[in-house]
Amino acid sequence: MSQPPGQLTFVAPRRAKPARHLADLSMADRRAAVTELGEKAFRADQLSRHYFERLTTDVGAMTDLPAASREKLSALLPSLLTPVKEQTTDGGTTRKTLWRLFDGALVESVLMRYPDRVTICVSSQAGCGMNCPFCATGQAGLTRNMSTAEIVEQVVSGARALAAGEVPGGPARVNNVVFMGMGEPLANYKQVIGAVRRMVEPAPDGLGISARGVTVSTVGLVPAIGKLADEGLPVTLALSLHAPDDELRDTLVPINTRWKVSEVLDAAWAYAARTKRRVSIEYALIKDINDQEWRADLLGKLIKNKLVHVNLIPLNPTPGSKWTASRPEDERAFVRRLELHGVPVTVRDTRGREIDGACGQLAAAE
Ligand code: SAH
């Protein structure tokens, strides 16, 4: 299902909800759920330790639980993600997994291991309604929002593979989670915030990943950025800007027709002021579209002296798109221009490109 250019979809056509899972619930709600099942409230803590610390869902192996309780408690650990396909590259240190959800919807996540850290890129929606023309996910349209537990399960499953030593380099833990897979996280706000809480809460409540290691990337839903700033969760905000002028951004990131560059940047600065976190500006460099020096100059002027960092992403190829990455000399000139304004800038590596697992390439087809 492809969307007409510029059309935005906020309401998911599919409303199917997966079964309730431990990871959907706060600890207080877990205790209530366990009590409803006829078990003592402290069983919620035990079950949580198995899931968030030992990364297990096999109730048979939970020997600290009486056999009769295991059966009942297993209702809180339904299987939500079924692996359909796994592709690896970089000697196994980059791995993309295609998951089938209970209703047949498909999503992908990507695990990237670096010498000093592990990053997991997760999906927050099946598809996406934001319709950015250079993004494969955007071209497919929105299928449905993912539940909190469906989002968390992507991280738990990666963490489990790492702990088991399945990823070359020895057993390891997840350091970073980036909401840069399929979907617009701030368009599925409540479920995404729940997932972030499960990720950052220390065990047994959650996975205990540092909030600074979690990045929420958005096309720029201004009211939701304001709400996120009020959550008291110091996660990193990434803003997919891609153009410094409204005329071009209206076409590259259609949400710009609702909230202009100046509005979204103001929201970003307010976020930085509130959280003391450096905002990351994402800018995919597209040959002869948004990579002119004058645009780098304009961008530099708009963001200089702010708590900001620019992440340039060489455009990754997507099916049906006529656009390609910038020439190396244009990329260099763009970087230099930004540096002249004193703006910190890095160019993102193209990890996962060979397996269509890089930014904007997730389309979840079998
Ligand atoms: N919807 C969110 C998160 C998902 S995309 C957002 O847009 O921020 C993660 C990043 O990849 C975004 O910055 C997105 O603009 C970028 N991206 C999308 N398609 C791309 C492509 N073909 N090449 C490079 N980056 C791309």
TrEMBL record:
<dbReference type="InterPro" id="IPR027492">
    <property type="entry name" value="RNA_MTrfase_RlmN"/>
</dbReference>
<dbReference type="InterPro" id="IPR007197">
    <property type="entry name" value="rSAM"/>
</dbReference>
<keyword id="KW-0698">rRNA processing</keyword>
<keyword id="KW-0949">S-adenosyl-L-methionine</keyword>
<feature type="binding site">
    <location>
        <position position="217"/>
    </location>
    <ligand>
        <name>S-adenosyl-L-methionine</name>
    </ligand>
</feature>
<dbReference type="Pfam" id="PF21016">
    <property type="entry name" value="RlmN_N"/>
</dbReference>
<keyword id="KW-0408">Iron</keyword>
<feature type="binding site">
    <location>
        <position position="128"/>
    </location>
    <ligand>
        <name>[4Fe-4S] cluster</name>
    </ligand>
</feature>
<dbReference type="InterPro" id="IPR006638">
    <property type="entry name" value="Elp3/MiaA/NifB-like_rSAM"/>
</dbReference>
<feature type="active site" description="Proton acceptor">
    <location>
        <position position="108"/>
    </location>
</feature>
<dbReference type="InterPro" id="IPR013785">
    <property type="entry name" value="Aldolase_TIM"/>
</dbReference>
<feature type="binding site">
    <location>
        <begin position="183"/>
        <end position="184"/>
    </location>
    <ligand>
        <name>S-adenosyl-L-methionine</name>
    </ligand>
</feature>
<dbReference type="InterPro" id="IPR058240">
    <property type="entry name" value="rSAM_sf"/>
</dbReference>
<keyword id="KW-0963">Cytoplasm</keyword>
<keyword id="KW-0479">Metal-binding</keyword>
<feature type="active site" description="S-methylcysteine intermediate">
    <location>
        <position position="359"/>
    </location>
</feature>
<dbReference type="Pfam" id="PF04055">
    <property type="entry name" value="Radical_SAM"/>
</dbReference>
<comment type="similarity">
    <text>Belongs to the radical SAM superfamily. RlmN family.</text>
</comment>
<keyword id="KW-0411">Iron-sulfur</keyword>
<keyword id="KW-0819">tRNA processing</keyword>
<dbReference type="InterPro" id="IPR040072">
    <property type="entry name" value="Methyltransferase_A"/>
</dbReference>
<feature type="domain" description="Radical SAM core">
    <location>
        <begin position="114"/>
        <end position="353"/>
    </location>
</feature>
<protein>
    <recommendedName>
        <fullName>Probable dual-specificity RNA methyltransferase RlmN</fullName>
        <ecNumber>2.1.1.192</ecNumber>
    </recommendedName>
</protein>
<feature type="binding site">
    <location>
        <begin position="240"/>
        <end position="242"/>
    </location>
    <ligand>
        <name>S-adenosyl-L-methionine</name>
    </ligand>
</feature>
<comment type="function">
    <text>Specifically methylates position 2 of adenine 2503 in 23S rRNA and position 2 of adenine 37 in tRNAs.</text>
</comment>
<keyword id="KW-0808">Transferase</keyword>
<dbReference type="InterPro" id="IPR048641">
    <property type="entry name" value="RlmN_N"/>
</dbReference>
<feature type="binding site">
    <location>
        <position position="132"/>
    </location>
    <ligand>
        <name>[4Fe-4S] cluster</name>
    </ligand>
</feature>
<keyword id="KW-0489">Methyltransferase</keyword>
<dbReference type="InterPro" id="IPR004383">
    <property type="entry name" value="rRNA_lsu_MTrfase_RlmN/Cfr"/>
</dbReference>
<feature type="binding site">
    <location>
        <position position="135"/>
    </location>
    <ligand>
        <name>[4Fe-4S] cluster</name>
    </ligand>
</feature>
<keyword id="KW-1015">Disulfide bond</keyword>
<feature type="binding site">
    <location>
        <position position="316"/>
    </location>
    <ligand>
        <name>S-adenosyl-L-methionine</name>
    </ligand>
</feature>
<keyword id="KW-0004">4Fe-4S</keyword>
